[in-house]
Amino acid sequence: MLEDEFGREVSGVRVSLTDRCNFDCVYCHNEGLGDTRGPQDPQDDEMTADDVVRFLEVVDEFGVGKVKFTGGEPMLRQDLEEIVRRTPDSMEVSLTTNGTFLPGRAEGLVDAGLERVNVSQDAVDPDAFAEITNSGAYERVVDGVDAALDAGLAPVKLNMVVFEATAGYIPELVDRVAERDGLQLQLIEYMPEIAGNPEWAIDIERVHDWLAEQADRVEHRDMHDRKRYFVDGGMVEIVDPVGNAEFCANCHRVRVTHDGKLKGCLNRGDDHRSMGDMTKPEIRETFRETVANRVPYYGEYLVQDDDGEWVVNDAYLPAPAQD
Fold first, then answer.
1. CA pair distance 69, 27, nearest whole angstrom
2. By CB count within 10 A, which of 104, 170, 175, 223 is most buried?
3. Alpha helix (H) ranges present in the chain?
4. Whole-number Å distance between alpha carbons of 61 and 90
């Protein structure tokens, strides 16, 4: 297994299969690429199924044991089942989706080898959901969660991005996962550094404090310095990367953009490396380079100044131009 100079082994990859989406969520950062949403028809720059599988076969050589398929909305890929089926058997396969296409396809994805699914659900009120996602698909998402459970994908993890428009729905979602067998809740801190609109962010410690008061039990996960709260039998996990150096120090993932570029950090747009024509030698070389150059975002690429503000580490600033 490859590791970077900070001793972080790369054990998982996140592969964006498309930047297309049938939602237009107000907080979307499109896997760190910014707002690139466009036509929903297949695009020429998307990796083919052969490209994706070839990449996975290479990283499998390096002991990578997990792949999560993302987007955009990955289920807009009609060849998703083929990609899942052709993923190396040694890899755990998971999917992040808005859930609208799970009815009718969840069972086939399980048959192909899908093991876990995360479904985005940012509100339990249809009108609020429509405002956040710019879609009228609330009931379709609920049906998608049911389809995933029926297909045997439990536990299904509901993803909520926590910011001003969604925070008020946390108690209802906590109740939902407590009442429904097979559901878990993942609360994801809003990331203004890549999504913009910093005024939307809330103090995530308030959420931690509230959950601690409700919880019967609290667990700490070393990976990403995460906490899990168990409330009335339901499990709630908080992902809080903003300003969290320990989170970054425990990152073990490399990301792949829909157009075949490797990136070592979600937050950075200056570390993308093309895999060229996607031949196996090119993929091996680019993967090695990407891992070797991975840097923890908080605590290394960004460091705190005397006022406690996060600023770019001088070591990563471009060298001044020579006269």
1. 20
2. 170
3. 49-61, 80-86, 106-112, 126-133, 138-150, 170-179, 192-195, 204-214, 245-249, 280-292
4. 10
Which pair of structure tokens corresponds to residue 155?
Answer: 């536990």
pLDDT tops 70 at residue 321 = no
Confidence of residue 8 (pLDDT cuts 50, 70, 90): very high
DSSP code of 316? G
State the DSSP string of 161-190. EESTTTGGGHHHHHHHHHHSTTEEEEEEE-
| Angle in degrees, CA 45, 43, 65, rounded to 5 | 60
CB 183 within 8 A of CB 195: no
How do residues 229-240 score in pLDDT, each as one tens digit? 999 999 999 999
Q: Which amino acid is at 303?
A: V
Residues 240 and 247 sit within 8 Å (Cβ to Cβ): yes
User: Residues of 176-204 as b/e, b for ≥16 C-beta within 10 angstroms?
Assistant: bbbebeebbbbbbbbbbbebeeeebbeeb
Rounded CA separation 187/312 (Å): 27
Residues 304 and 312: their CA atoms lie apart, in Å, by 9
Dihedral sign, Cα of residue 196, residue 12, residue 44, residue 40: negative
Other CB atoms within a 10 A radius of the CB of residue 258 amount to 25
Tokens of 237: 């996990």
Q: Which amino acid belongs to residue 102?
A: L
Torsion angles phi and psi, residue 273, rounded to 5: -130, 120
Cβ–Cβ < 8 Å for 88, 95: no
Cβ neighbors of 163 (< 8 A, separation 6 or more) are 27, 190, 200, 201, 202
Residue 136: DSSP 8-state: S
Q: What is the pTM of this model?
A: 0.93
